Structures are given as structure tokens and as C-alpha cells.
Amino acid sequence: MLQLGVNIDHIATLRQARGGSEPDLLSGAVIAEKAGADGITVHLREDRRHIQDVDVFELRKRVKTKLNLEMAVSEEIVGIALKLKPHNVCMVPEKRQELTTEGGLDVCARKKKISEAVKRLRKKKIIVSLFIDPELKQVKAAGEVGADCVELHTGAYANAGTQRLKGKELARLRKSAELAVNLGLVLNAGHGLDYKNVTPVAGICGMNELNIGHSIISRAITVGLENAVKEMKNLLKVR
Ligand code: PXP
After folding, report:
1. Rounded to the nearest whole angstrom, what is the distance from the C-alpha of residue 211 to the centroid of ligand 1?
2. CA-CA distance, 226 to 182, in Å (whole number)?
């Protein structure tokens, strides 16, 4: 069955806005799991704008499903991941000024650095995913550097302004998905997915997991986190 990874970064965004301890990140993780999340995802950004080091180590102890750490391919963060030993990591590109992760990792251009990091992480039995744009050359490169999974960037699909463009982006996602599955890579996707646009992506053949954050945490403000996760989980039952 299609799995849901709930990204809880924005609980920490709200907490950091006042610098205190509310809302409590760990409670958020527990509620999301209770509501049916198959995994908890957090991004320890180099600028520590939301998730902090102490959060990831506490989550590692408390998360019962699986902890997925989104991370830049930097020496510092790779070092933390090796100590933390989350169940999965997802390598993402990172720019200081961006509001959120804006594009996929250019695996083709950074093959050597990425393959070294993949090797070190896999040696510790951490499952490694690469967050890439839905481009065949990036999927192929992800296979070549030894990743276990790819997470296809659904941002362009989510932001497409017309039905025609949405269809085009969905076709790109399907093509990349097919190649990933043929190469034996586990297929995940995420970014910008919400209650209105998730169904076609959930229906892509071979899809294993969707990682969703902003829309679920936003919906939680009106219906509560438990309901927000349950509603999304129900939408994923398309197969
Ligand atoms: N997947 C990856 C790799 C991401 O960087 C993000 C954003 O942190 C997400 C999924 C979730 O995106 P959104 O918050 O738009 O659902």
C-alpha cells in the first residue's frame, strides 16, 4: 500500500517563531503516527531555521514508524546523519535564501560527491534516497551512484497553472517513475502535494511513498493534526 511520510518541519517553524518549546514537535510526531503516518520526515537545514540538532536525536528515540532525514550533501550534515542513523535519508540540494527546497539534486553534475556520501551512509545500513527532478538522466544517475530510492520532485506539477501543463508534468513524472522502477529503485515523490492535487501522483504505477508537509500542517490548524493526517491517508488509498 502507498505510504505517507509526514513532514513536520513546520511545527518547528512555528516553535522557532517565538523561540520557546511550543508547539511541541515530539507530540506532533506521535499524533501523526497515531493517525496513520507511515513515517516522520524532517529536514535538518544547514541554517537550522526550523528543525534543530536536538530534535532529530529526540525523534530518533521516539519515532516508532521510521524517521526520514532530509539533508544537504555537506560534510557536517552527513556526519550528523552517520551518528543519528535514521532509517532513511533523503539528500536534497540546499540554498540559504530559498523558502523551501526549490529544485532537485543535480546528481549528474555532483556524481562523485554524492556517490561517496551514499556509500558512507549505506555502510551504516541507512536507506538512501535522492530528491531529483523528474528527468530521465537524473534517475539514471541516481541508479549509478548507488542510491536505494529516488524521490521525484512534484513541485513543477503542483505549481502548473493550467490543466494542460499539469498533464505535461504528470507525464514527465510517470516516465521518470517507470525508469526508476525498471532500474530497481524504490519510487517516492513529494513537494507541493495537497488534498486537491495528490490523487494523480498517488496513482502513478510503482509509487511507494509520498512525503507531504506544508498542506498537512496547514490543514491541522483548522481540523487538528490527527484529522489532517487521516484525511490525507484516505486520499492515498487509490490502489
Ligand atoms: N520532499 C522533500 C525532499 C522536501 O524537501 C520537502 C519540503 O521540505 C517535501 C517533500 C515536502 O514538501 P511540502 O512541504 O511542500 O509538502
Report:
1. 6
2. 36
